[in-house]
Structure formats: structure tokens, C-alpha cells
Amino acid sequence: MEKKENTEAFDDAFIAAARDYRMLLDKDYPVDASLKLVGDRYRLSHNGRMMLYRGILSLKASQINLAKLIRSPWERASLGVDGYNILFTLMNYMHGHPMFIATDGFLRDVGGAHGRIADHRGFERMAEIAANYLAALNLESLTFFLDAPVSSSGRQAGFLREAFAQRSIDAEVRLENGVDHFLAYWEGELIATADSAIIGRTNAHVFDLARAILENQFDARFMSLARLLEPSLSISVPP
């Protein structure tokens, strides 16, 4: 897969919107109402609104999540993986969706596949790339969770089991109806996800597996939304 640059310049309207949205979140205004107010004021596109929604967290939430983030797992860690969260992120990169580092330090995108996978070959390619990366880690145990309600999840679980076996990875691939719950209350030391709801609830350390794969395997680089909130940036704010 050729390298894709997921960096882009943000215009003045988006930067102003990001600052206004953060201000409202820090004042405990409701997320949905804040997103609509700011999105309408600055006439943001769907992608712009999704970047705010998934990329700008309150200062408090950002600090809580960032404190749990690790950039690489330690030796003999027990890792629980939010499978679709990781693989959908890799697929969205492959398909060129806008991606960014959120204010809590985790890689996210504006979205793509939700609940179904049309590109099975692309999924399998990303699964093999993830398996190759995981094979190089010296893990004590690996549990790879997939959401059972996702279409073709049984087929994808079988593909992953075979991919792990071919690489001599002793991994358990589990189909569950409540993956978020299993990961939020994971009893192991480490989970891999960028789902902010899970990160906010877990007591485990959190590994940004998708970001590690993309940066290490493809030399990908991403824009940081936290930088937009720095007051040193000079912008003109639309009326």
C-alpha cells in the first residue's frame, strides 16, 4: 500500500470553531447542542462537524484519556484488542478518509464503515497487516474482540484466527455482543482502542494500535487538533 499523507491545512473558520466548541465543552454544555451551534455558526461541512465531534474533547476528558495512553506495549503484556475499531481505522486510512490526532492524543477519523463491511478484500488485507505487526510484539496473551452483530463477523473471525495461526500467534478471537463492556472492564493490563467511551471508563492502559501500525509500517503522519487550540495561533474569525 502506498503512503498516504493524511495531513491538511485547517482554515480559519474550522480553527475558530474548534476553539468555540472546546470552550462550550469545558463549560459542560451538551455535546449535541454545542456541535450544532458551532457547526451552524461556522457553516461546517459534515466532515468538519465529525472532526469536532470525534477530535475535540473537553480539557478534563482529554487529560484523563491522555494519562492512559501508551505508545508501545511493554514486554509480556496481556492485550485486549477492540478489533473493528482498529481495523476500520486502518481501512479508512486505506480509503483516504480524513484522519487526525484528537485532543486526547488518539488517532481518529471522520468515519466510514459502520456495522457492515463491503470491502472484504480490503478488510482481510488490513487484518494481515495488523497480524504482522502484532506478531512482532512480545505479548503474554492476545484477545481480539469482534462485535458479533457486524455483518460477516463469523467469517472475519475465522480469517483472523487463521492469520494469527500462520504467524504462530497464540491469540483468542472472540465474538461478543458487548465488546465495549468487555474492554471497559478488561482485567488485563492493556487494551487497544481509540473509542473515547471505552477509554474514559477503563482502568487499564490504552495502546493506540492503529496509529502505531500506520506510523511504523507506512510512515504516515497526522495533523494534531490540540495544536489548533493554542492561543499563539493567529487567525481571523468570521462574523
Arrangement of strands in the largest sheet: 1-8-7-2-5-6
Which consecutive residue ranges, at least 5 long each, have pLDDT under 50?
234-239
Residues in helix, %: 40-55%
What class do helices, strands and sheet pairing give?
alpha/beta
What is the helix/strand order? Answer: HHHHEEHEEHEHEHEHEHE
CATH class of the domain at 66-229: Alpha Beta
Return the CATH topology of the domain at 66-229. Answer: Rossmann fold
Topology, number of strands: 9
Task: Return the average pLDDT rounded to an integer.
Answer: 90
How much beta, percentage-wise? 5-15%
The rounded distance between the terminal residues' Cα atoms is 43 Å
General form: globular
The profile of the biggest β sheet is:
6 strands, parallel
Q: So, CATH architecture of the domain at 66-229?
A: 3-Layer(aba) Sandwich
Roughly how many Å is the radius of gyration? Answer: 18 Å
Structure overview:
By secondary structure, this protein is an alpha/beta fold. It has a domain at 66-229: Rossmann fold (3-Layer(aba) Sandwich). It contains 10 helices and 9 strands. Strands 1-8-7-2-5-6 form a 6-stranded parallel sheet. Helix 1 packs antiparallel against helix 2 (31-41), helix 5 packs across helix 6 (120-135) and helix 5 (83-94) runs parallel beside helix 10. The termini are far apart.
Question: TL;DR?
Answer:
The protein is α/β, with parallel strands linked by helices and 239 residues long. It is 46% helix and 14% strand.
